[in-house]
Amino acid sequence: MIEKNTNEKQAIELSTWDKVKKKIPTILMVFIFGILLFSPDAKSFLIKQLLFTGIFNAEVSSVNSTDNELKNHFDFEDYEGNIKSTADLKGKVVFINFWASWCPPCIAEFPSIEKFHSKFKNNDKMVFLMINMDDDIKTGQQFYDKKNYSLPIAQATSAVPKEIYSGSLPTSVILDKNGIVRMRHTGFANYDAKNFHLQIEKMLAE
Predict the structure, then answer these.
(1) 100 lies in which domain range?
(2) 87 in any annotated domain
(3) How far apart are CA 192 and CA 206, in angstroms?
């Protein structure tokens, strides 16, 4: 009788453990989702891993039709207080990135932009325009300083045309020397891919 009760108890314990094991994947998914929901750093880390796959490599369009020319320009102020306009940048290839320090996808793609910038920053025909969308540009600069980024920081001082920025972060735009929009990408991307750099070099040579 005692042996029977022991066997029944063991069977119940095994049955309970089997039920728990079946729920482990669900428990893990809830745990991971909770971390991603409340931790911007965790979101950023996950996105960085996705960037390594190559699926999200940036790409410049070969179409340089005047139909895609940026007709509505905007003014911006750099961190030193100098006010300029994108209209003044014709004759140069311009990379514009709209970002904020609280935006996980922005944070995730920044290392690739930093490497992209490092490769082309000494080319006088290339301009990097990092438009910070934080309420205070000092917040964006503090983020830069913490990460040791060397990218130039700026804020828009006039309305940004919807043809290049509709409110989604991050958004990246590339203008060729004639002011034609050759790329407008909403969402995170990898800007450190070899093929993308070759496309930029080709635009610089046009």
Answers:
(1) 66-205
(2) yes
(3) 21
Residues 181 and 85 occupy one common structural domain: yes
Residue 6 is predicted with a pLDDT of 55
pTM of the full predicted structure?
A: 0.75
Averaged pLDDT of the chain:
81
Residue 18, classed as helix, strand or coil, is helix
- The partner residues of 181 in beta bridges, in order of sequence, read 175
Clarify whether residues 83 and 179 are in a common domain: yes
For residue range 25-64, list pLDDT tens digits in order.
554 444 444 444 455 565 556 555 555 555 567 778 776 7
H or E segment at 121? none
Q: How far apart are CA 204 and CA 127, in angstroms?
A: 11
The DSSP annotation for 133-197 comes to -SSSHHHHHHHHHHHT----EEEESSPPPTTT--S-SSEEEEE-TTSBEEEEEES--B---HHHH
